[in-house]
Amino acid sequence: xxxxxxxxxxxxxxxxxxxxxxxxxxxxxxxxxxxxxxxxxxxxxxxxxxxxxxxxxxxxxxxxxxxxxxxxxxxxxxxxxxxxxxxxxxxxxxxxx
Length: 97
Fold this sequence. Notes:
Elements: H1 3-6, E1 7-10, H2 14-23, E2 25-30, H3 36-47, E3 51-59, E4 62-65, E5 72-75, E6 78-85
Antiparallel strand pairs: 1-2, 2-6, 3-6, 4-5
């Protein structure tokens, strides 16, 4: 699998912003077929940083109500990777924000 197929998007939330500042950890949505080694290689190649560790989480599917009529929509399951970088390394996801 090509490194650009492994990482789908960065996850930008309040919690991920806190972990970026405090623990030097970044969260990404990754391909369902990806493993820790693939994620590590993709991040190192794409952002030119040294990765200290990778944790993978399988996020379960959820159902959400979409209107007053009670229509229910199912959000598909996905895979999340939390990447810990070596001390002194950082990834600039959004410049100037």
